């Protein structure tokens, strides 16, 4: 008896491969190749994709799944590379993907004992709640792909604690379903958050923060939003859908954000031995220890100004002037909020 087949090559009633198994298989496949794999080769052969691959070419949903999986793998700290074909430059269909094994191996001196792995398993039990459980499950993939097998089953290991923005999950679901959504967005410089109606095209992680790239119905063009500035709930618009986003949109947006990051440069004077010197110094691209000056790249001026203002007198912005003004505005607002009634403005 032949089982009915759903659109996209998925057999109805077929049990789905768990996400951690799919990521594990993808990591192993990309580690095993020197030259890299084409997207078509990955989708047609790797466990978790191959079961749903449609040889007739109806694989749009599967390709979007692969785009999200790439983000998850990179979020784990795994160096997934994109290699362009020298014969077909600019052709996304000719891109190859690989994980350089030399950059992914654990240092020789790093070893986990069975007792240490048991402790990792216990920690994972604690982290099973809310959004941290997804990090624990994905991190188990990384442990297994490194060839580490614990004496007792390890439920998960998260190399760092990170809670995604509240808007992440509803936006991910809207992206899967190609569902238009509404939310209120607080743009720096505006007094109140404004409602936005958008078609989500990609959710990407850059510079430690989640960004939504979407078609903004009100603006009539595509915009990129910071998830942390979304206020309140993300609500689907009933009966409103949109066409599948173009292939490679996630890589393009990450490249654009990275270009913006490199274009924005700040010179800072930091107090020697301060928290600002330690934390900001780790990100410096240049520095003059004698003068106590460091140079950094940044992506979002408002976010960076918030961070710098939190250091108070430990950091002073030398340039650009617009960033210095933004930090001063924040410091004045803090001073005003703590001023006693009746006190004048200094």
UniProtKB/TrEMBL annotation:
Ranges for domain WYL: 167-230
Pfam family, one: WYL
Segments forming domain WCX: 283-335
InterPro entries to which the protein is assigned, alphabetical: CBASS_pafABC_assoc_protein, WCX_dom, WYL_dom
Protein name: WYL domain-containing protein
Organism the protein comes from: Agromyces badenianii
